[in-house]
Structure formats: structure tokens, C-alpha cells
Write a structure and sequence with these properties.
By secondary structure, the protein is α/β, with parallel strands linked by helices. It has seven helices and ten strands. A six-stranded mixed sheet has the order 4-3-2-5-6-9, with helices on both faces. Strands 1-10 form a two-stranded antiparallel ribbon. A two-stranded antiparallel sheet has the order 7-8. A hairpin with a 3-residue loop joins strand 7 and strand 8. The mean pLDDT is 88.
Length: 240
């Protein structure tokens, strides 16, 4: 496995109000931020990483860059509020990539890691956006965060509050991943989310390449030959 040159990955993170649910400790958004930092530690320094946040609108917080501190600063600025416009987030993420081809006509690899806890509630169709991502050669790896028992507290008219269930929706996110040519993952705990992000960081920033190992075998053979010669001299006083 070798690092992929010129690769770019955008972490596209849901910051809707449901991300305040504490079913994933300490809450869904804080767990997402921590996992994103683990992701940054996993990918090689030469890989570009960007950040897009979304609720009912989307914001490019950081275009893909190798400057990890810029991405960390953008992560710290995310706060939860509002609804969920997943399709808009996908389109915004695609616009951040530099897909100019090199002299050989190859476009740099690109991928989106989309973390959310629910279905899209506004904006353009998310499945259509995923289809466009596939046409551009940008797979989307979705991560569904949360547990079926997740809830949030919302204000009610008159100054009171109410408990509202916010179960995750893995089905809609799996459809997005499938339509884009990516893969779908689920995480019901902070530890599980960090493991998913570590795995994705490694998978998306490396590729397998065939390496010539003849020299290694020849070198090993030479070492064994020299060792045998030395033992022969020691035991018999001559080379056999």
C-alpha cells in the first residue's frame, strides 16, 4: 500500500439540530469532531483534506489542503442547529475538488466522507447528487451516526420544552453511497465512529501497487551465502 499522489478527501459533516443528541457521548457532533481529528492523523501528509458542514444550507469551511491545522480550526467552528440538506452538501463538496488532469490525462483521485444522522429534509435530491458524483468519479462513503433511542430537547410555544426522538436513518445514507459507487458504514458509539474513520482514512489515501521484490530475494540469498562461507571457514578452515 502506497500513498496516493494528489488525492483529495472532503469530510462532509451534518451539523443539524439532531446532532446535539447525547446517545453518542458526549453528543453526536462532538464525537464527529473527535473522529475527524483521528482521520486527519491517519491520512498521509501529502493527501489534501477539506471540510464541508451542512444543515438546511451547506458551508465550505475549508477547501482541500495539506495544512492540517486549518482543517482542525474549521472543525472547531462547527455548531449544531437547523435541518438537513444532504443533496446541497454533496454538490458543495464536489465543487471544492481540483480535478484538472495532469500531463498524462489523469485526474487526481477524490472522495467524499459524508457523516449524518438522518434523512435529507430540504434542498436538492440527495440521490440525484450522488449520481452526479459517480459521473464525476467521486465516490461517497456515508457514515450513519446515532442509535435508535436518540432524542433531543426542543423548545415549545409558551417557553416549555419537549423531548423529540431523532433515530438515525441508515437506509437513506446507504442509498447515497450505492448511487455514488461508494460504501455505507454505521456507528452507534464514539469508539465505533473513530474506528470507521481510521479505516476510511487508510483506505482512501492508499492504493495497492505491485512492487519488484527480486532484489530483496537476491539480497537475502547473498546474506545466506556469506553466512555459510563464514561458518565453513570457522569449522573447516577453508571454503567448501
Amino acid at each position: 500500500a502506497v500513498p496516493i499522489e494528489r488525492a483529495s478527501i472532503v469530510l462532509t459533516t451534518d451539523v443539524s439540530g439532531s446532532m446535539t443528541s447525547t446517545d453518542v457521548k458526549p453528543n453526536r457532533l462532538v464525537a464527529a469532531k473527535r473522529a475527524a481529528r483521528q482521520f486527519l492523523d491517519t491520512v498521509p501528509a501529502r493527501v489534501n483534506v477539506g471540510l464541508v458542514s451542512f444543515n438546511q444550507t451547506s458551508r465550505v469551511l475549508q477547501s482541500p489542503t495539506t495544512d492540517r491545522q486549518e482543517v482542525v480550526g474549521a472543525l472547531d467552528s462547527m455548531n449544531p442547529t437547523g435541518g438537513t440538506a444532504t443533496g446541497e452538501a454533496i454538490y458543495a463538496s464536489m465543487r471544492t475538488f481540483d480535478r484538472r488532469a495532469d500531463l498524462a490525462g489523469h485526474r487526481p483521485p477524490a472522495a467524499i466522507v459524508l457523516l449524518s444522522d438522518g434523512a435529507s429534509t430540504s434542498g436538492r435530491n440527495a440521490i440525484a447528487a450522488a449520481g452526479e458524483a459517480k459521473r464525476q468519479g467521486i465516490p461517497i462513503y456515508t457514515v450513519t451516526l446515532g442509535t435508535p433511542g436518540g432524542t433531543i430537547t426542543v423548545p415549545t410555544p409558551g417557553g416549555g420544552s419537549a423531548i423529540r426522538p431523532v433515530p438515525p436513518d441508515p437506509r437513506s445514507l446507504a442509498q447515497i453511497a450505492s448511487a455514488s459507487g461508494g460504501r455505507a458504514f454505521t456507528a452507534g458509539s464514539a469508539t465505533g465512529l473513530e474506528e470507521v474513520y481510521k479505516r476510511l482514512g487508510s483506505q482512501l489515501s492508499h492504493r495497492d501497487e505491485k512492487r519488484q521484490v527480486t532484489a530483496a530475494f537476491a539480497g537475502g540469498g547473498l546474506v545466506l551465502l556469506l553466512a555459510a562461507a563464514g561458518m565453513s571457514l570457522r569449522w573447516f578452515g577453508r571454503l567448501i
